[in-house]
Automatic annotation (TrEMBL):
Residues 332-354 are annotated as: Disordered. InterPro entries: Sialidase, Sialidase_sf. It comes from the Bacteria. Residues 136-383 form the Sialidase domain. Transmembrane segments: none annotated. It comes from Ancylobacter amanitiformis. This is Sialidase domain-containing protein. Pfam families: BNR_2.
Amino acid sequence: MKDTVMGIIKDVETTDIFRHGSHCVNQIAMRTLRNGDLLAVFNEERFPFHHDSGQTLMTRSTDGGKSWSPPHVVLPWSQTEGNWDCGICELEDGTLLVNLTITGFFKRGVRPEQPSWSAHPRTDEWGDWSWTYKLQGWLGTFVIKSTDGGATWTKPIPVNVRPLKHGGCRLGSWLLPNGSLLMGLYGRIRGYEEEGEGETTRSALMRSDDGGDNWEYFSTLGYDPASIIDYEEPALLRLKDGRLVCFMRTHTQPSSDAKNMVMTISEDDGFSWTPPKWTNIWGYPAELIALQDGRYLMVYGYRRPPYGVRGILSEDGVTWDVKNEFIIREGGVPGRTETDTPGSSRMTPESGKLASGGIDWHHPGIYQHIGYPSVAQVEDGTIVCAYHEWTDDPKPLQYLLCTRFRV
């Protein structure tokens, strides 16, 4: 692994945020608070591999990302539920609002008459979860709120995503100048979760005008009526002139091949959007911020060799070109594993499974899951980009780190 600046970024410094001794931690989302602190939420898996059945944790940095507080649990897991895909937002009155997805990871309720097709996961801590890849179900999108800086939290408040059957989160909500909230989600109308029913995923905005207690479908960001293109994990940016820009991750069906990101623009605070326009930028997912010097920055994961996290600068927030791409971090996929690794819990038991031995970076299975960067700028102008990658240990685990730099 290496950091590559390519003459664009300087004063590069990479440090750990958090490593767990036996669980994967991933998908961090970060914001700069009004008091200058960096506040981040992330997912702790309940297993030593990516499983989307974990719990949401929070950590804080008071020195611009140089060091981070020991994390504490925001919403804990249980024997039957997990949560992940969290994001953070600070409201005008200082209230913290975390959005996340809650899923039921149900074990068998009826004694089976035959073994499960899956051999994983089975642990001393959680017992036999080998049926979860078929029995799990997304329970919905929720928000929780804190008025004491994250010490205590409300019970989960359900987000109305109708007419979608479900909404998957990626980043925290965004505040409009009038105090309303926009939440970017992706989902489907005819079916639950990410695939099925011959329908691709769409991206949409939910809106709340009462501080996150009640939500309503506000607008569609991207949707393909032919069900060929998936539009997922939207990332919003407000320009100096008030327009909103949104980037989305894309895949084409039936191959599920990842394609370039698309961009769409709104001139009416997110009520209507231009048709998605293909960019020449490959990578996903993204986050965008306005910089202190008037420029705009987008960061995104790069999940193909040589892997890592990349960024692009734009002068106007509308013109983005891969020729301005730079590398923030390269690598993140381990070289070997001494044990078999199960595939994704969201697919069939064999999907993404990897045998012990050397890891082929062209076919890394679940180990391609790196990146998911989040970015913020602190008072002295330093940019902090947080993300996850895999350790290079005999039993690799996802962990969190951040790179500080200037442009």
